[in-house]
Amino acid sequence: MESAFELETRAVFDRYQRQQENDDHIFDRLASLIEEDYFGLPAGSFRGLDILDAGCGSNANASYAFLEKGARSVTSLELGSEWMDCASKRLGRFGARSALVAGSVLDLPFDDGSFDFVHCAGVLPHTSEPRKGFEELTRVTRPDGKLFITVMGTGNGVVYRCINHLRELYKHDLQFRHSVDNLNAASARQAIDWLLDTKDREEAEYLSKENDFFRSLFDEDFFVTIRDRFQAPTYHDFDFTEIQIRDWFAECGFANIRRISRYTRAFHNLRRFLAPMYRHYDHPLARFWFGDGCIQMIGERPRQ
Ligand SMILES: C[S@@+](CC[C@H](N)C(=O)[O-])C[C@H]1O[C@@H](n2cnc3c(N)ncnc32)[C@H](O)[C@@H]1O
User: Which candidate, 41, 40, 85, 87, places its Cα nearest to that of 67?
Assistant: First the structure.
């Protein structure tokens, strides 16, 4: 039985994740994040593996990608079971290779060493005990298997300092909360039209393709991300560090621990211009805006 906090977390995420499932562009962009090269593996490496996607979200986009890439079985785990109708829409066609399981990453309902590859993206900071969740993930990873997690790094960059501050405002300021809750591509279009009409009246000489380009920077995918940053309940501010996560892997006896990153393609919005900083998280510009950034780390459980 989920706690009140977990129920709220699930309800908030379920709304975005259903929207993402309904939009082929967004779903395909998310599924395209799973590629062997990113994990430092040769092409075809997921073929024949038993994979766990822990905290898979209602649309289970990563599970879908692993199945497409030939995993022998993918177990998709989320809190409760209300999400399963959504996940089944895309996973149903994989038959018995896909299993949907209700459960918590804090108490995984699997035997030790059940999976060759464990994937847990963006989940641990949304739990009451991230370290306990991490240990559970290591427990179910097979000897010789790999564990991959992502957590948002510490908020010492400008973007996350602002987000952490605005998250507090979101909790207490009804007007700000209302604005965020109603932020979407349609409501933004009105604001953008007003902005551009006003600009065009003052500076008609610049009327050209620049307005179309400006509009193109703000699509629904962008606003789903913005709402997520303010609405998603977290037990912890964005305050994890790379060293801390490396230590977690090492303390659990994992080897070949690597922080990885990728060039995130296929954004149709402003984030296209942020993608170089997601890839090169150590560049001074990336550090300035994103601090420790999104920590994506993989390690291997040695053979006993
Ligand atoms: C940021 S979303 C990521 C979803 C998915 N991994 C993805 O990358 O699209 C975080 C997810 O963690 C799930 N979650 C939160 N606490 C959890 C727990 N204790 N056990 C399993 N999942 C949990 C939430 O319901 C939510 O779907």
Answer: 87
> From ligand 1's centre to the CA of 57, what distance in Å?
5
Question: Any idea which residue has 């979407």 for tokens?
Answer: 184
Please compute the mean of the pLDDT values over residues 143-161 and round it to a whole number. 89
Domain 4-156+232-300 of CATH type 3.30.230.10: no
Checking if the pLDDT of 255 tops 70, the result is: yes
pLDDT in tens, 87-113: 999 999 999 999 999 999 999 999 999
Dist. CA 15–CA 253, nearest whole Å: 38
Question: Any residues with Cβ below 6 Å from ligand 1, and which?
Answer: 6, 9-10, 13, 55-57, 61-62, 78-79, 104-106, 121-123, 126-127
User: What is the location of CATH 3.40.50.150 in the chain?
Assistant: 4-156+232-300
Distance from the alpha carbon of residue 193 to the mean position of ligand 1, in angstroms:
36
d(CA 225, CA 208): 29
- Give nearest CA residue, ligand 1 atom 9: 57
Mutate to test the pocket of ligand 1, among 23, 126, 132, 134 (most ligand atoms within 8 A of CB): 126
Ligand 1: which of 123, 128, 228 to mutate, most ligand atoms within 8 Å of CB?
Answer: 123
Amino acid at 181: D
Query: For 94, phi and psi rounded to 5 degrees?
Result: -90, 0
